[in-house]
Specification:
Layout lengths: L9 H6 L7 E4 L3 E5 L7 E7 L6 H7 L2 H17 L7 E4 L15 E5 L9
Antiparallel strand pairs: 1-2, 2-3, 3-5, 4-5
This protein binds guanosine-5'-monophosphate.
């Protein structure tokens, strides 16, 4: 029951190299890059290489190797950015109530300073 995927959403265009990004990490499964409007000292987005709108679409419809490779990449990026010891926060917005703006599944990675309490 995958939602229709808009091939021209901004993250699809970043994946195709049509729009530049500040790349942090790239492999066969995922691309990680700095958020253009950072909400923390470190604010990185990690997106899978595939046409998945939401967290659920990704987890249900993506091949097992992609799901595994994607989430391992999130962990690798946190490690490479030196956030493991200090700590960090992951967030994924899904759908209207969560104000998901870009219809390509992504995980936000926040860190670099002591974060406030999670408000919601
Ligand atoms: P959402 O609300 O969909 O979870 O978050 C989308 C995120 O993408 C926002 O934090 C926003 O700042 C970021 N973003 C939107 N457009 C671009 C862009 O063109 N480049 C980058 N690097 N980030 C973007």
């Amino acid at each position: 029951a995958r939602q229709p995927y808009d091939e021209n959403n901004i993250f699809a265009r970043i994946l195709r190299g049509e729009i530049p990004c500040r790349k942090v990490h790239e492999n066969a499964f995922a691309l990680a890059f700095h958020d253009i409007n950072p909400q923390a000292d470190v604010h990185v987005l990690v997106i899978p290489k595939g046409p998945y709108v939401s967290f659920a679409d990704f987890c249900v419809d993506a091949p097992d190797a992609l799901v595994t490779g994607f989430f391992r990449t999130v962990a690798d990026v946190a490690q490479e950015l030196g956030l493991v010891e200090s700590g960090y926060r992951l967030l994924a917005n899904a759908g209207v109530h969560a104000h998901q703006e870009v219809p390509h599944f992504h995980v936000h990675l926040f860190g670099g300073h002591a974060l406030g309490p999670m408000l919601v």
